[in-house]
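Why this split exists: single-chain examples teach little about how molecules sit against one another. For that reason, every record in the complexes split bundles all components of an assembly together and asks for one structure covering all of them. Below is a record exactly as it appears in the raw files.
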Amino acid sequence: MNDAAELRDRTRELLASHPPAHTGRLDFLRARFDAGLAWVHYPEGLGGLGAPRSLQAVVDSGLEAAGAPDNDPRRIGIGLGMAAPTILRYGTEEQKRQYLRPLWTGEEVWCQLFSEPGAGSDLAALGTRAVRDGEGWRVNGQKVWTSSAHLARWAILIARTDPDVPKHQGITYFICDMTDPGVEVRPLRQITGEAEFNEVFLTDVRIPDSRRLGDVGDGWRVAQTTLMNERVSIGGMRIPREGGMIGPVAKTWRERPELRTHDLHQRLLRLWVEAEVARLTGERLRQQLVAGQPGPEGSGMKLAFARLNQEISGLEVELLGEEGLLYDDWTMRRPELVDFTGREAGYRYLRSKGNSIEGGTSEVLLNIVAERVLGLPPEPRTDKDVAWKDLAR
Amino acid sequence: MTDLLYSDEEEALRSAVRDLLADHCDAAAVLARIESDTPHDRSLWKLLTESMGLAGLLVPESLGGQGATHREAAVVLEELGRAVAPVPYLTSAVVATEALLACEGAEAEKLLTELASGRTVAALAVGLAARPEGDLGVVRQEGGALSGQVTAVADAAVADVLLVPADDGGLYAVAANAVTVTPQVSLDLTRPVATLTFDGARAHRLTNDAPTAVRRALRAGAGLLASEQLGVADWCLSETLRHLKERKQFNRVVGGFQALKHRLAQLWLEIVSLRATARNAADALAGSGEDTDVAVAVAAAYAAPVAVHAAEEALQLHGGIGMTWEHPVHLHLKRAKADSIAYGTAGAHREALARLADLRPPL
């Protein structure tokens, strides 16, 4: 099964047996999953056909042309991008059958319980404890920066099961039921006024051993699959010129000549060039991936976009002059999606501050580039051979 | 669609050029040569052109060239930039060749064939700092003879033929022996500049439309210079990495200090970005896209500061040895700095973008 023609046939068959105009959204999505057209590179029986990933586009374009509903991938990004590949790689057959289908259709939203107040860049130092409790586990601790926690049915969770060994060795990976009475989700209000994220408090949460992913103590390795997939999903799309944050600034510049100054002009031109360069760099990376020659450039793109977003939105606020003194809305909300373009410049300025912190700080990413791409010596690891319980904190 | 990658043939071309330069253009040889009476390396030029046919990449096969494109020429320039090779490739095989390609008639075709072989070297008699939209024509034409002076013409010392835009709007070919070529003490000794003095020099008219030919030549020069700058920057990063992985101070490998690791990672990111941008310009020049002006201006505006940054970081991170004449990093610094003026500064190209991208200055 790696034939585009065959996939086109199967897509047509699905559309014939479940005409989008006369099929409920969820029914269609379930039928699509069962036909192996959800993610064609997944195995048969789990929403795929074991086909090359590149052939997904054949299915997607056929379904889009027919007006078929999609699974609203932005809403369930953590499930699709992080939980699913980890379950596929480390899950038991039973776990795969139970979780992947409702995950893909969006019936069940997933969130990620990784970061903690005391474990950010040093995630492996996490302190949430899972202790044996009869046939299962009892979990206590606090997680933070959890998007979708208030909507989620399930969470991927890493917790410490052995404090007596060095930090990377004593972690185990679980699937956590977010409806357990010991799970408390509190919105975490951020500098933009809204709460995209949550704090999650885990108090005597019960997790049956059947919801463990991978071996006891092997959670850090399992988590690498999750985190690697997070990085892959960044930067895969083609963007048109002025497609990013530079778009709204360029528009304002053209439409409102009274705001222009020479200083702003020089800075705008510099940033316009850098935005175009970043776009081309992303496009080159995409072409490398398509040609099957993935380069290490991916780790750099997030760095570039974080800095650019911050500088461009900073310029935008300044360009607006008196209007830059205003803010559209400080009301505390819990948005389902982050929408950079749906808000005003002040929001973009504040929200983009997080771009150099979330998903790996720019400082950590620079270390990663220096060590893994440039082959420079690693940072001194004074914690490598120390039991977790003896670490400084 | 814009292809930003290198094809297998382009990679093969790269390794052939790199191997040749490794054998015939090492840093010690360049250092020894640049203070001699013949800073240009004619025997290297012979190998690059007569043996490999590289001077004819942009010339059609019907005129004795290779009929290749700017994409291949860009790969050659990356390698020449890495080696800061003192050969007139950019000036003769790209800029002068492009000017001639804009002309019609037997004289231009004959010259193109000679240039493609590499046995004749030509230089456009325009100062190296000229940007594609600049003013031209300071040389006066009277009765088929030229008079006047042009300064800072790159590689003029090895040119056999000069292509001269004159005040009447024409572009003329003048034999170098009919002109006084006075070398200037140059910042970049691997691409020295000279003053041309025309005193009633006999000239053949190549076209009536010098502005079009010169603009085409300078645009190609600015666009492909980005690939040379990429090569310069890439050499600076890899040499600095090599040094910092060996050098020990404070009982540690110096490359392990985080302050330095971050600077090198940042430089790597700039170079990766420059690679995409330079490929985009080369690909645009190779096609006939209407977007070529933007692609070239973006590459020219981005490449110069990256190459200078890479060379300045290389010098600083080499420590004291980077300040010595003996170590080649100064060759790359001087080339990078001179390149930042060549064919228009980054600022000049940003100004062009203000028009091209409709981001107008204050009223």
